[in-house]
Amino acid sequence: MIALIAHDQQKPLLLQFVREHRELFAAHDLVATGSTGRLLADELELDIERVAHGPAGGDLIIGGRVAEGKILAVFFFRDPLTAQPHEPDVSALMRVCDVHSIPLATNSATALAVVEWLKLNAAGRSQQAE
């Protein structure tokens, strides 16, 4: 399962990124915080499990799933300059991802690296199945 979160100002960037890599994201189970998930589902017609909005603890729900071993990668497009007080903080999610060695992309450059890692990971699983 891949997790998707974005601060308000970064939602268009995440939407564009997922659009550009739609085939990869469509091949995975997806979970997202409330409004991010709604945006991605509405705009890209992806099947996305939506948890609570960020301010209501959606990022914590995703963090719990990371701890349970249910998340393969997290894409949290955060706004480092103008994040609003109601938006989720990446610190706790970063900590749990680090503890469990789960890749966490916080911008489009690291997201691209994680996409490439996911492709390699999928290729490795395909070769093991043969």
TrEMBL record:
<comment type="similarity">
    <text>Belongs to the methylglyoxal synthase family.</text>
</comment>
<dbReference type="InterPro" id="IPR011607">
    <property type="entry name" value="MGS-like_dom"/>
</dbReference>
<dbReference type="GO" id="GO:0005829">
    <property type="term" value="C:cytosol"/>
</dbReference>
<feature type="binding site">
    <location>
        <begin position="33"/>
        <end position="36"/>
    </location>
    <ligand>
        <name>substrate</name>
    </ligand>
</feature>
<feature type="active site" description="Proton donor/acceptor">
    <location>
        <position position="59"/>
    </location>
</feature>
<keyword id="KW-0456">Lyase</keyword>
<dbReference type="InterPro" id="IPR004363">
    <property type="entry name" value="Methylgl_synth"/>
</dbReference>
<protein>
    <recommendedName>
        <fullName>Methylglyoxal synthase</fullName>
        <ecNumber>4.2.3.3</ecNumber>
    </recommendedName>
</protein>
<dbReference type="InterPro" id="IPR036914">
    <property type="entry name" value="MGS-like_dom_sf"/>
</dbReference>
<feature type="binding site">
    <location>
        <position position="86"/>
    </location>
    <ligand>
        <name>substrate</name>
    </ligand>
</feature>
<dbReference type="GO" id="GO:0019242">
    <property type="term" value="P:methylglyoxal biosynthetic process"/>
</dbReference>
<feature type="binding site">
    <location>
        <position position="7"/>
    </location>
    <ligand>
        <name>substrate</name>
    </ligand>
</feature>
<dbReference type="GO" id="GO:0008929">
    <property type="term" value="F:methylglyoxal synthase activity"/>
</dbReference>
<feature type="binding site">
    <location>
        <position position="11"/>
    </location>
    <ligand>
        <name>substrate</name>
    </ligand>
</feature>
<dbReference type="Pfam" id="PF02142">
    <property type="entry name" value="MGS"/>
</dbReference>
<feature type="domain" description="MGS-like">
    <location>
        <begin position="1"/>
        <end position="130"/>
    </location>
</feature>
<comment type="function">
    <text>Catalyzes the formation of methylglyoxal from dihydroxyacetone phosphate.</text>
</comment>
